[in-house]
Amino acid sequence: MIKEFKDKTITVLCGGDSKERDVSLRSGQNVYNALLDLGYCAEIRDPVDINFDSDCFDIVFLALHGPGYEDGTIQQQLERNKIPYTGCGVLASQIGMDKVKTKLLCSQHNLPIPHYQLLNTSIDTLPLSFSYPVIIKPVSEGSSIDVFIIETDHDLHQKSALLTQSYQSYLLEEFIEGRELTVGLTEANDLITLPLLELKTNNRFYDYEAKYTQGLTSFMLPASVTNHEKQLLFDYSKKLFTLTSCSGFARIDYRLCPQRGPFILEINTIPGLTDTSDIPAQAQEYGWSFTEFISIILLSALNRYTSWA
Predict the structure, then answer these.
(1) What domains can be seen in the chain, in order of their start residue?
(2) 18-34 confidence digits (pLDDT tens)
(3) Counting CB atoms within 10 angstroms of each CB, which of 18, 133, 244, 252 has the fewest?
(4) pTM of structure
(5) Is 176 exposed, middle or buried (0-12, 13-18, 19+ CB in 10 A)?
C-alpha cells in the first residue's frame, strides 16, 4: 500500500456518457475490486453525476473511455481542482484521442503510419492514391467503434455517409495486410515494455465485438516475432510514449506487415482493464497480478499528489 494514500479514499471514475460506457463500467468494477484487495478505502462514481467544482475527492483512478474522458477534458477539470489522478495527463490525452494529432506527431518523428486522408464528406470512389481494401474510422473514438473495412465503391459510399452523420470528419486509411499486435507500457521505476501481444480473431480485424466478447479472440503471449521486429516495436513504442508525454501506462496498437514491417495505428492513453482487455494480460505475462498492476498504475497519482502538495 502507498503510505500517503493509507487514509485517503480512492474514487474510481467509470461509466460516463460515451459510446464506451459499458467497457468503462467493466474496467471500473475490476479496478475497484483490486483496490479493496489492496486494502484501500475505495468508491465508484460516475462522472455524469459529479460536479468537480463542488464535490470533494482525495485521489481519482480514471477508468473512463471515449470522448470527454480520454481527450484531456476530465484531466483538465481534475488538474484545475488539484485532484491527483492516475494515468496520462492533459497533453498526452489530447494527442492520443485525436488520431490525426497522433499521425502528425508520428510523421514529424519518422514513426511509420499507414497512408491516410482526413475527410469531412461522404465519397463514392477512392482518391487515386488509395486502393481497396481501405479502412474508414472516426478521428476520436476508441474500442474500434465505427471502424469499417471497405472493399467496394458501394460500401465506401454507404459507410462514409454513415460516418458523416455522426462525426464532423473521419479518416480514410490504407488497410495494412498483416498481423494485429499491441505493445503495453507502464512506468514503475523505469519505463517498462510489457510482453508483446498478438491478437488473433476470426473477425476480419480486431473490432469491438472481437475485443469484448469472450472466445472471439485468442491472445498470443508473447507474440512470435523476429528479434529485429520486436526491437523495432519496442523502440517505436517507447519513443511515442515519450513524445506524447504519457505517464502511468499506455498501449500502442500496430499492424505488422510481413513485407513492410510495423505500422502504428494509435496510442491508447487509458487502456481497458476488463477481463478481456489486452494490457492486464500483458502485465500478467510480465509477472504481475492484476492487483499488482493496479498498484503500479496508482503510482502516477502519487506523483501528482506529491508535486501538488
Answers:
(1) 3-86+291-308 (3.40.50.20), 95-112+177-286 (3.30.470.20), 116-174 (3.30.1490.20)
(2) 888 999 999 999 999 99
(3) 133
(4) 0.91
(5) buried
